[in-house]
Amino acid sequence: MLTTADLDALWLTFKVASLATFLLLLIGTPLAWWLARTPSPAKGFINALVSLPLVLPPTVLGFYLLILMGPSGAIGQLTHFLNLGTLSFTFAGLVIASVLYSLPFVVQPLQTAFNSIAEQTLEAAATLRASPISTFFNVVLPISRPGFLTASILGFTHTVGEFGVVLMIGGNIPDKTRVVSVQIYNHVEALEYPQAHWLAGCLLAFSFTVLFILYSVLKTPPQVQQLK
Amino acid sequence: MSKKLSLLSLITFGLVLSTSSVRADSTLVAVASNFTKPMTEIAESFEKATGHSAKLSFGSTGKFVSQIQNGGPFEVLLAADETGPALLEKEGLAVSGTRSVYAIGKLVLWSATAGYVDAEGTVLKTGHFKHLAIADPKLAPYGAAAVDYLKKQGLLDKIQPLMVFGENISQTQQFISTGNAELGFVALAQVIENGKIGSGSGYIIPASEYATIRQGVALLKNGSDNPAAIALLAYLKSAPALAIIQKYGYDLPK
């Protein structure tokens, strides 16, 4: 069965993933909107930057973060200047790393959703004297609901599945940075296969259920209503 | 017909003979992280001396044992403890009678900052550090030794909340060398240069202060027929290999 340490790891993972998803939606929404709408030549550059975690091995991200968050790294010096200490080995550091790591999984579905909203739709809203903010909340958000659902679920599950980065910057501290994936790895290394099986099974069931629900709910792609 | 056949068999025999006498074998070796540096040197000298080659994988003993149990292709295991090889022998995955201790590990309290760790290690009692890195005591013998030492010093309760855990001893050193942890416990072999601590500052923990780290080696089932694996096992006991082991601060088993 699951031990208290396993349950702690599950709870911690849930906290990291929830907080990271919340922050990702907060950052990802304006970013995806900008990427979907801008004619700026910087678009390709930013798009490539956002998508990097899709192709980079987590060890690369983990390595850079470890160096950057360290006392002589840029982030480390900034946090030190702000009297926050260093971010490595902390819950906050883990959340920040997760946000970077899962960024494309949130930005890309949102960008796709925003892309498929026709310009006429927004213009129609504008002719009805809707402010850009009001248009966003009353027109864009409802239309993009499936995109937001996909983005939140992928952001959350991808953060739950994060391993390499956490291993490199987490320091494996119980209740602070020892998330489920690391706990499973420890069980396997300690030859505690029954424990590893329990946790791995939980994660497998969780991931499948979430994806199953997602694919069942989203029978249709985000719908766009053309206005004439 | 018979002439042809005999010629053919002669050629075949010649080919077999030539390949077996010229062919150098290669062996795949799992090496505990703490032994990375000495083993790299030993492998080089082994290749020069025997013509065989050794391919080295580095990682934690626990991970290797678990991989070997699940069909890992390793032929020799140089562990950080005696339990791993013993377990594999019991499970029939290591060739029985090939187990021995090849080195006795030394624990050192180390910091990347020069002058941070004093000659007596009093920094543990007086220092205002935020993080102390050790290898996960459940997985790594050097981590268990560090906990053992802290317990004996009566410092475990004070330091426990400051601990960060490396998955193996190499990662532990990486936490310290990047400055993310101010200090920590690593293997002497990782930081020794020309008989003393190379960079930063360190305190070699007296061997009486923790349970002896006896590092065991075993020939694995996969390598039981490989001349290179068998030769490597013998080579570990040769004078040049022993000299390299000692150069990196290890004691030799008595």
**What does the main sheet of chain B amount to?**
5 strands, mixed
CA(first)-CA(last) distance of chain A: 60 Å
Q: Give the name of the CATH architecture of chain A.
A: Orthogonal Bundle
Percent of residues in β-strands of chain B: 15-25%
What is Rg of chain B? 22 Å
Across the major sheet of chain B, the strand order is 2-1-3-12-4
CATH topology of the largest domain in chain B: D-Maltodextrin-Binding Protein, domain 2
Helical percent range of chain A? Answer: over 70%
Relative strand content of chain A: under 5%
Tell me the number of helical segments of chain B per DSSP (H or I, 4 or more residues long).
Answer: 11
Q: What is the H/E order of chain B?
A: HEHEHEHEEHEHHEHEHEEEEHH
Count of DSSP-assigned helices of chain A: 11
Oligomer: heterodimer
**What is the CATH superfamily of the largest domain in chain B?**
Periplasmic binding protein-like II
* Secondary structure tally: strands of chain A: 0
- Overall number of structural domains of chain A: 1
* CATH top level assignment of chain A: Mainly Alpha
User: Termini separation of chain B (Å)?
Assistant: 64 Å
Task: Kindly report the CATH topology of chain A.
Answer: MetI-like fold
List the helices and strands and how they pair.
The complex is a heterodimer of chains A (228) and B (254).
Chain A: H1 4-37, H2 43-55, H3 58-69, H4 74-81, H5 91-115, H6 119-127, H7 132-143, H8 145-160, H9 164-169, H10 180-189, H11 193-217
Chain B: H1 2-22, E1 26-32, H2 36-50, E2 53-59, H3 61-69, E3 76-78, H4 83-90, E4 100-105, E5 107-111, H5 123-126, E6 132-135, H6 141-152, H7 156-159, E7 163-166, H8 169-177, E8 183-187, H9 188-191, E9 192-193, E10 196-197, E11 201-204, E12 213-219, H10 227-235, H11 239-247
Parallel strand pairs in B: 1-2, 1-3, 6-7, 6-8
Antiparallel strand pairs in B: 3-12, 4-12, 5-8, 5-11, 9-10
